[in-house]
Amino acid sequence: MSFVKISWVVSLSFFLGVSAWGGDYRGALYTLSQTDDQAILISALHQNGTAEYVTAVQTGGKGSGARGPDALQSSDSLLVHDDSLFAVNPASDELSLFSINPAEPWDIQQVGNNSWSGGNYPTSIAVSPDGNKACVTNAGSDSNVRCFDITRNGLELISSFNFDLGLNQTNPPVGPPKTPSDLAFTSDGQILLVTVKGSGNATEGPAGRIELFDVSSDCISHKSTLYPATGPGGLPFSITPIANSGAYLVTDPAVGADLIRIERDGSVSYNASITIPGQAATCWSAYSSVTDQYFTIDLATAKITPLSINSTTLEPTLLPGVNITYISENPGSLIDGRIAHFSDQQDYLYSLVAGDQTVRIFSLSAGHQGGLSDSIQTYELGAAFNSTGGAVGTSIEGLAVFLRPSWY
Ligand SMILES: *[C@@H]1O[C@H](CO)[C@@H](O)[C@H](O)[C@H]1NC(C)=O
Ligand SMILES: *[C@@H]1O[C@H](CO)[C@@H](O)[C@H](O)[C@H]1NC(C)=O
Ligand SMILES: *[C@@H]1O[C@H](CO)[C@@H](O)[C@H](O)[C@H]1NC(C)=O
Ligand SMILES: *[C@@H]1O[C@H](CO)[C@@H](O)[C@H](O)[C@H]1NC(C)=O
Ligand SMILES: *[C@@H]1O[C@H](CO)[C@@H](O)[C@H](O)[C@H]1NC(C)=O
Ligand SMILES: *[C@@H]1O[C@H](CO)[C@@H](O)[C@H](O)[C@H]1NC(C)=O
Ligand SMILES: *[C@@H]1O[C@H](CO)[C@@H](O)[C@H](O)[C@H]1NC(C)=O
Ligand SMILES: *[C@@H]1O[C@H](CO)[C@@H](O)[C@H](O)[C@H]1NC(C)=O
Prior knowledge:
Number of helices: 2
CATH topology: Methylamine Dehydrogenase, Chain H
CATH architecture: 7 Propeller
Distance between the termini: 13 Å
Keywords: Signal
Protein name: 3-carboxymuconate cyclase
Radius of gyration: 20 Å
InterPro entries: WD40/YVTN_repeat-like_dom_sf (IPR015943)
CATH class: Mainly Beta
Shape: globular
Helix content: under 10%
Bound molecules: 2-acetamido-2-deoxy-beta-D-glucopyranose
Strand content: over 45%
CATH superfamily: YVTN repeat-like/Quinoprotein amine dehydrogenase
Organism: Kwoniella europaea PYCC6329
């Protein structure tokens, strides 16, 4: 016991530089800098959900560079699965894998070298529920879906699987139309879903679509192409499972969101769109199990809109949204968001605001059903990183959270 305690204190002070950092932190928040030299910006999370800057760790790859807000036009560019952290390096066509020290999640170690993404300009990652496979979308001139075996030495490309998205893109890609948006596995791991934005023009094509793939332990193959209810002009974006329903909330900057229920055989048993009034670019989404609410994030209006969805009827109810007022002269530009499940009584929403490089943190507690009213912190991540000699601009994108297991 005393050995564990001593090594813990030594490594804490090594990573944090100050003994004042105690064990009383609940987890860590990671953000991708998207600077030319890509870095993971690491913050510690207090027990009350607020964040504090710790350090930056280089991935060795290249971020998008200064392309303005939403340089990736995607969701899930940074992903935590169990004790692993996966990151895209779009401008160098590489993926990075890190292992997270679960006792001190601000301590991450790279696993192996960066791997080639299997195409150009990787933008989103998904990991199978069993943690054995990672799949990625590439958005550049070689735009495709590729998958990897996750090994103790890093990510190994499955060379037999290469699904060309046929987007006729450039490096870097010019979107948002005609770029991949997100990917996700079904909870049984047997189907992979990939959202692809269409041209945004119903008469011009290609249509926005969801590509489905069959996944087994030794094979991945294309299954079918689905069209969500926004039809040919749609721009399907982030994928969030709807609890206890077999359905998905897919944001769509053309209207707000789509709801789609996909059966085991790949057929669609429900297909509807949700119009979010006044929306302009609803691109990201997250789910709170504590409040049983979904949160959609609009880049252009800088608004987060909560909704509840009846898991039987899939009837949505929109709740009052919150406008993010920005603290610099740059427009807000809301990018990624994640929910962290602190306890059965308490979730927090972390919303990355690229315009001023802040993370807005909201408390979502049990019994509070009104929507999103409880802002607990405007966390000035960019200013904290810049004060250590870094320089993160409005291209910052990608956000993930790790919570320490209760036994630490
Ligand atoms: C959260 O906890 C930290 C550390 O104890 C404290 O400094 C901060 O004031 C708290 N913030 C809120 C909103 O309670
Ligand atoms: C990483 O790359 C270096 C330099 O190319 C090489 O020497 C090393 O063997 C690689 N490590 C792994 C785990 O592939
Ligand atoms: C592909 O894109 C180029 C310009 O980037 C364009 O000239 C060409 O017509 C496009 N081809 C197709 C098949 O869309
Ligand atoms: C959609 O495409 C058609 C055919 O190319 C074109 O005539 C029309 O102007 C486009 N609409 C918009 C809104 O760009
Ligand atoms: C969903 O609805 C749209 C619009 O009605 C339709 O074009 C599309 O084919 C439907 N998709 C499926 C998979 O049924
Ligand atoms: C969902 O809708 C069904 C059918 O209208 C209704 O019986 C049920 O109470 C609703 N569930 C919730 C949580 O509102
Ligand atoms: C939020 O933004 C919308 C659209 O810009 C505006 O109509 C609305 O009044 C704003 N609400 C608040 C509370 O500022
Ligand atoms: C951090 O530095 C970058 C590069 O100089 C700048 O674009 C950005 O606005 C700065 N961010 C903050 C919050 O000061």
